[in-house]
Amino acid sequence: MATSPPKPATWTYSEAFVPEDEVLANARARAEEVGAVAIGSGGGAALRFLASVLDARAVVEIGTGAGVSGVWLLRGMRSDGVLTTVDIEAEHQRLARESYTEAGIAPQRVRTIAGAALDVLPRLTDAHYDIVFCDGDKVEYAAYLKEALRLLRPGGVVAFDNALWHDRVADPAQRDEETVAIRDLGRAVAEHEQLVPLLLPVGDGLLLAKKEWAPEDVQ
């Protein structure tokens, strides 16, 4: 029996099921001030849950914004976990550091790197990270996936925000560059032999994929 899509009230209830506190509200306000679009509360809660389930110690974030997603991730990570967050906008990272401080996160738990993601990611350590969260240039998502496969340890997870891209990805008539890039990414993730994919309809869509263990990784 097919299920009907959720009603707007149900959707709103689901998105707000894990409420945001004052710290996250302030971080979201900072993001709005500089035009950075932060992940929604439902997606943020999913990231925290994921970081907690994986007992994440090392996470890469592409797109710092003003720290909304970073705070969610850090709250789910181990107490000694380190978030490496990359953004081309140094001002966004300055605001993010304000958010981390307000959240009571120790400075040594966050490594901010100002620069273009595709310049920075190749310098990071292979197979070292538990999560790679991508919320940068949508046209570069396929390149982020390639880098994530190298950066993730076996069993790690790559996550992409805006996987539904304002309801455009599901509409084949929408052929703008960003929509096509995200649609192609979803197809590539779903068909990749080394990945276990999942598309969560939270916020603007959160695409997740677990990097499978290769036979040589299993002792």
Structure explained in plain terms:
The chain has a 7-stranded mixed β-sheet, with helices on both faces. The chain is built from 8 helices and 7 strands; from the N terminus they run H-H-H-E-H-E-H-E-H-E-H-E-H-E-E. Helix 7 (141-151) links the parallel strand 4 (129-134) and strand 5. The protein is α/β, with parallel strands linked by helices and 219 residues long. The longest helix has 15 residues, at 177-191. GO terms for molecular function: O-methyltransferase activity; S-adenosylmethionine-dependent methyltransferase activity. This is O-methyltransferase. It comes from Nocardioides islandensis. Keywords: Methyltransferase, S-adenosyl-L-methionine, Transferase.
Name the descriptors.
O-methyltransferase activity; alpha/beta; S-adenosylmethionine-dependent methyltransferase activity; O-methyltransferase; transferase; 219 residues; 8 helices; SAM_O-MeTrfase; seven-stranded mixed sheet
Q: What's this model, at a glance?
A:
Helices cover 39% and strands 20% of the residues. The chain is α/β, with parallel strands linked by helices and 219 residues long.
Percentage of residues in DSSP E strands: 15-25%
Helix-strand sequence: HHHEHEHEHEHEHEE
Structural class by sheet pairing and helices: alpha/beta
Radius of gyration: 17 Å
Q: Give the distance, in angstroms, between the N- and C-terminal Cα atoms.
A: 43 Å
Low-confidence stretches: none
Q: Helix share of residues? A: 25-40%
What is the overall pLDDT average? 95
| Largest sheet properties | 7 strands, mixed
* Oligomeric composition of the shown chains: single chain
Largest sheet strand order: 3-2-1-4-5-7-6
Number of strands: 7
